[in-house]
Write a structure and sequence with these properties.
- Helix content is about 30%, strand content about 25%.
- It is α/β, with parallel strands linked by helices.
- The protein has a single domain, classed as UDP-N-acetylmuramoyl-L-alanine:D-glutamate ligase (3-Layer(aba) Sandwich), CATH 3.40.1190.
- Strands 5-4-1-8-9-12-13-14-15-16 form a 10-stranded mixed sheet, sandwiched between helices. A 4-stranded mixed sheet has the order 3-2-6-7.
- Helix 1 (about 25-35) packs across helix 6 (about 220-235), helix 4 (about 165-170) crosses helix 5 (about 175-185) and helix 7 packs across helix 8 (about 270-280).
- The relative contact order is 0.14.
Amino acid sequence: MKITIVSHSTIDRFVDSRQNHEQIGGPVYYGGITAKNLRSKVYLQTKFGSDFTFIHKLDHSFIFKNQLSNQSTTKFKINLANPVELFLENFCEEIIHIDYNFDIIIITPVFHEINSSILEKIPRTSIVFLDPCGFLRQIDSTRRIFLTKPYIDFINISIIKITDYEAFILTGSRGIQAMQHFQKLRIESIILFREQEIMLLNRNKLYVITDKSFRFHTNIGMMDIFNSAFCCTYINESDVIWALCFGGGAMQAALNINNLNITKFPTKNMIETNAAYFYNLLRFSQI
């Protein structure tokens, strides 16, 4: 199975009272490694500049598409306070054209890098997973990132993953009401994260996994790991329930590793063990 991730590669600078260091980041990395661990063939449709010194962590594992830019790599400063604050230090160029010939396309911008024409040109036969967070991001005068409502064309989206707060910004509603709003836009599956729950609305059934150990709101890369594990499983199994459990299982396995940096990636066996655990926790109801 062929999976593609469309997003900027990023340099993340972590800052607190004890550290100030840079490392590779973004959906291309966190999602790409997770998909590779699940034995998918991964294509990265991304952009980065000559200052991206982390390429050795990716180049032997993935297939790139038009990645090199004349501009410097997108860079974030992540202030590890409570709550975590995100600042945009540099923005690379837009991604204007992509290849659509994949089993599933994960579109997950970090900051408006995906041109609107990409969504408009998606073939109706494609399976498209959208994590819209990067479309919601704006910066203030200090370049601190905050979220605001953008215009997004959802017409060709198959699956969307959002947090409860992102759902509120986009729809004015939370929880099930927000999920039903997206369902009216003909999105087949809606995944919503809130508190210590992951919710999935598919047709007229709502599936919920609850676990008190979830800390996805403050842990870098967790959403990207979830997205990738969900999509790999969905393509292999054609089952949204197993995909939900594998996504949650991958995320929880990474949380259990409890490492901020690039060694947090769970193995396939760890993901499968957690997926079975979450399957037993799964609740569902008719909507």
